[in-house]
Amino acid sequence: MALRFIGIYPNTPTDESPTIWVDEETGDLIIQSWTADEATVKQAQEVGSIPGHSTDIPAHESMIRLPAVMLQYIPRPDGDA
Questions:
Q1: Which residues 6+ apart lie within 8 Å of 30 measured at CB?
Q2: How confident is the model over 6-61, as pLDDT tens digits?
Q3: What is the phi/psi pair of residue 11, to 5°?
Q4: Taking a C-beta distance cutoff of 8 angstroms, is the pair 44, 71 a contact?
Q5: What is the pLDDT at residue 7?
Q6: Beta 29-32 vs 34-35: how paired, if at all?
Q7: Strands across the sheet with 29-32, in order?
């Protein structure tokens, strides 16, 4: 796996900073961000996604809250970040 740094939360302190990397081989995004609080998780479970799909979060997954300002770093299909 070869990761490439994409961006970090603007004006960030030295610790606890939302950060995004891309896996150069797969194009997957690797995101470090704040863990969603219980109220957010509960609301997402109430809203759901598609009929019949579980709203439980499997042990191998996490729900994170990505600050809107970080969207500028997500790569677009045209190659711009």
A1: 3, 20, 21, 22, 23
A2: 999 888 777 778 999 999 999 899 999 999 999 999 999 999 888 888 888 899 99
A3: 50, 40
A4: no
A5: 92
A6: unpaired
A7: 3-8, 19-23, 29-32
Three-state secondary structure call for residue 16: coil
Question: What value does the CA radius of gyration of the chain take, rounded to a whole number of Å?
Answer: 15
Q: Please tell me the distance from the alpha carbon of residue 70 to that of residue 34, in angstroms, as a whole number.
A: 12
Q: Work out the number of other CB atoms within 10 angstroms of the CB of residue 20.
A: 23
Query: Tokens at residue 13, please?
Result: 């302190």
Residues facing residue 5 across a β-bridge: 21
Helices (H) and strands (E) in the chain, counts: 1, 5
CA distances from 60 to 39, 56, 57 (A): 20, 11, 8
The domains of the chain are located at 3-9+17-46+56-73
